[in-house]
């Protein structure tokens, strides 16, 4: 339809069934679903998730995502969503906190371990810790304390000791156990 | 409780709650109050299949119990602990309890005044648990009474022969009636003349048991909705640029470049309203960019071409010099807070004298969830979602700005991403209401992190100068404490002779333990807004006092544990000025517990440094013991032990989390955090400027010891463990390095001195 509009001549369809035009946009997979972003390619992923998709588990932390509240996995690697313009996401796969559990609702072992250890303060930054922790466990299934020390997240509630315990619990395969 | 209920029914339900609440506020629960002369309400007004047993409890026919949490949960665990109190009293099966965070309960009272249908609603102020203990048990007890009465009639057995367990009434002959099957009958009963007595403590089944956070599943799956996560159709996003000088103003603005950004709808100038106290109106002159989405609003903000007229070119450094000059001079204090015995006379017999000054910086609140508000203001109603610690205060701001009748203002308070006192103020609510009124559309207000750091109600810096006089037998004869700070109460309606009360406590240690004790407060003036902050004024005073006690021990060449125990003296109750009691036995106990756990007997021999501190607040007692290491010039926190005595414990799992969490927050704050200002502007803009401690900088665990104490009623504990962590750390650092840190943040000062 775009060329017709360019000539200023409305096209009268000869059928009442009009196939939807192929939309040019940024093709991104988020939590297993395909999305095509046709808006401003410079829009950071964070606002795309929160404003457009209303996937609000990924939180705003600050202009550079330094506290880790907006971490998401892009092709499996943790990145602050506010630092990623949509333009860089064409063909990429994004996992947010909403995508960590299985489709049947079975929690990721680290999610379960967070519940087991009650590793939650106010809970606002928890999704970011989970993303960072899931990435760590994938890279190092048996992380040392020094490995856990490398997590970029911060938390004013002071949930760090329980997050550490939750990561160790998940690593030990004891999520969901007493 | 459903926000989606059609308006008419919602109002009817409110009317229903008002009848319920009667004149006794939150204490009254029940389905029908005969005295009110109102007929019972049609069940459909209560929701299709719910029977409501008071403002806090609903039970459906299947026996599912819905319990309302009235106080906002800012991460303190009250959304779990408060419903636990009700559920235990109700003998509800916790596995079938769902908790719903109650919005503000407000109804039309007399003369257009609001009537608070859920009673108090305030969180993060350390008093949710004690207040709930006083009244929520009765809410549960009354619901249980109604169900038991209904069962008695059905079974033909006297109510006092029935017992309740796991949402079931059980008869002596073994017959069982579930709550779900009784709610219909129970809802038709008249209320008792007297409030039913709460359970005897030995019958608690839930209170005192570890219970996980009720929101945990929603949080770990990203489904928990904070205020910042709420949307409303047609809402515009508002992003603000506040004047970097709290006392500055907008000199010039060109809005055209901002308005040219695609999606930007409007640019507005907001100003603090004259005569309104801080926290009730806009915090500083601001320009708001309203747009169709956050990204457009942020881009619009970046395109603003404006100039601010600067405020006074003050600095935090100059304020500190002013404070030191005041304390070093002989000017009379603004207020003599306490004066026991005769400090001047005691000085004449001095065997030994010690004096030291402690400096503590300005602090920000640094809430994880920045200030935000969703406001929809219609002609005859308002609906807001607010991250508030005090929704009744938020209501007052909305009511003043809209003029709406009390019950036409709906305020929802989802779980809050940190409070620490910041959300007792509602300047951001005023901003959202002003904007929503102006654009006649719902507004989603978002403060960026930069705004959050640059325009806060900060905790004032303070300088403590303490001197002590010790006799030949190591007894502390006199304690003279002089404190200079900018009161958090300035401009907030407190009389001049009460401005000290946000800065120092007349009963704080070692008052009452030293025969000659004086506490003077000197007022500082600062243009920086101040407000309530976590554990103030305990935090700053405990650092000065508990560091100084260690310095006294060092002067006397004594084990600081011994010095502290001698100062506390024999276990006894000392009456406090505020009507409470200091139980020195309970304080000694927590101190001894942490000392034993960290193997204090090694304090002199240990390669690492051990440090202690103890404190008390509002009937609760806390002590920390910390072990630090020094390798080269690198300080490490090796071990942290904290003991608390909070009286009866509601949720030990929650309590342990609060104690460990506050310990880590206090360490993080003491290590590296400070707000500074220069030329009148706050210099911190992002996390890199205000670096909360990384995982690596914090201890791997906090060993929490909870004193079993069912003899005393429960106290609040969300910030109990804040005050003693920093002085215990500084005392441990001194042991390991011989460097006495009297200035926070600690790391910077340690590096300067070593």
UniProtKB/TrEMBL annotation, chain A:
The keyword Nucleotide-binding does not apply. InterPro entries: 2Fe-2S-bd, 2Fe-2S-bd_dom_sf, 2Fe-2S_ferredoxin-like_sf, Beta-grasp_dom_sf, Diverse_Oxidoreductases. Residues 96-168 form the [2Fe-2S]-binding domain. Pfam families: Fer2_2. Keywords: 2Fe-2S, Iron, Iron-sulfur, Metal-binding. Transmembrane segments: none annotated. SUPFAM superfamilies: 2Fe-2S ferredoxin-like, CO dehydrogenase ISP C-domain like. The keyword Iron-sulfur applies. This is (2Fe-2S)-binding protein. It comes from Rhodanobacter geophilus. The lineage of its organism: Bacteria, Pseudomonadati, Pseudomonadota, Gammaproteobacteria, Lysobacterales.
UniProtKB/TrEMBL annotation, chain B:
It holds the Pfam family MoCoBD_1. Residues 336-345 have a biased composition (Basic and acidic residues). PROSITE patterns: TAT. InterPro entries: Ald_Oxase/Xan_DH_a/b, Ald_Oxase/Xan_DH_a/b_sf, AldOxase/xan_DH_MoCoBD1, AldOxase/xan_DH_MoCoBD2, AldOxase/xan_DH_Mopterin-bd_sf, N-heterocyclic_Hydroxylase, OxRdtase_Mopterin-bd_su_IorB, TAT_signal. Transmembrane segments: none annotated. It comes from the Bacteria. Residues 221-312 form the Aldehyde oxidase/xanthine dehydrogenase a/b hammerhead domain. Gene3D superfamilies: Aldehyde oxidase/xanthine dehydrogenase, a/b hammerhead, Aldehyde oxidase/xanthine dehydrogenase, molybdopterin binding domain. Residues 325-345 are annotated as: Disordered. This is Molybdopterin cofactor-binding domain-containing protein.
